[in-house]
Amino acid sequence: MTDPAQTLPVPGAVGKLYDRLTLNAMNDGTFNTNVHIGYWDTPDSEASIEAAMDRLTDVFIERLKVDGSSHVLDLGCGVGGPGLRVVAHTGARVTGISISEEQIKAANRLAAEAGAADQAVFRHADAMKLDFPDGTFDAVMALESLCHMPDRQQVLTEVCRVLRPGGRLVLTDVFERFPRKEVRHPGIDKFCSGLMSTTADIDDYVALLHRSGLRLREILDVTEQTTLRLAEEIAKLSAVEDRPAALDESNFFTDDAFRPSDLAGVDDFGCLLATAERP
């Protein structure tokens, strides 16, 4: 569930936003095959942002438990980086979907360039109404994509339907950590409005999964390893004049309405990692 006061994302508008961000990144040299946060295993980890992004995908792979016989759905696949990493590391077949047509074009191009077009296929689709038969997939992954969808319950119910019995879902989502501030930090408002997102209710997340027909296996607060650390790293990079173009925060996931450094030090903007399965 989400706070009813939040403005719900409109799928078509989210698609247009990411169309624009993708084209901007390709035109100005900031294109990155990962369109998600990073994961730093320890507070003293010196991993780069790019390495931490790959590490988050690896954290998903560890929990998906798939192999060369598996078919994985990447729900909100971005430009295909994580899905292609799943293919490379597990041999699984991946179908990715995104509401952004430009992301799908980029993802299929990357799959072809990697020689993986027969194992990784990306489609323009709306996660609110999945066009797949029941029990199609052995696993589903969703890296920060549910926050862009107007009804988490509907999406998760669809995920349960397209999973085979015993199939796994691994996801990350954003939420406001307890205790909630009397006045919400403006960085959270900028994140929600600039990226057409909502924050989840972590107190209801277990019930949310159960109402969808899924059985919870694990739910973790990974804020320190992910969103909080990323905002800090981006804030540091902002002060470096010769920072890599691909990490220029003016195009790092976002448009001019929001920059990741807006959330530097905002420890009540949380990220959860959940694993569930279809019984």
Describe the 3D structure:
By secondary structure, the protein is α/β, with parallel strands linked by helices. The protein has one domain (11-277): Vaccinia Virus protein VP39 (Rossmann fold), CATH 3.40.50.150. The protein is 34% helix and 19% strand. A seven-stranded mixed β-sheet has the order 3-2-1-4-5-7-6, sandwiched between helices. Helix 5 (152-162) links the parallel strand 4 (137-143) and strand 5. Helix 1 (11-28) crosses helix 4 (101-113). The chain is globular. Mean pLDDT is 91; it is low at 249-255.
Protein topology:
Blueprint (H helix, E strand, L loop, with lengths): L10 H18 L20 H16 L6 E5 L5 H10 L2 E6 L2 H13 L6 E5 L12 E7 L8 H11 E14 L9 H9 L10 H7 L3 E7 L5 H12 L30 E9 L2
Parallel strand pairs: 1-2, 1-4, 2-3, 4-5
Antiparallel strand pairs: 5-7, 6-7
Helix pairs in contact: 1-4, 2-3
- Uncertain residue ranges: 249-255
Number of helices: 8
What is the fold-level CATH name, i.e. the topology? Rossmann fold
CATH level-1 class: Alpha Beta
CATH superfamily: Vaccinia Virus protein VP39
The domain count comes to 1
Measured distance between first and last alpha carbons = 22 Å
Q: Mean pLDDT, as a whole number? A: 91
Shape: globular
Largest sheet: 7 strands, mixed
Our Rg estimate from Cα atoms comes to 17 Å
Number-wise, the strands total 7
Key structural traits:
279 residues, alpha/beta, 8 helices, Rossmann fold, 7-stranded mixed β-sheet
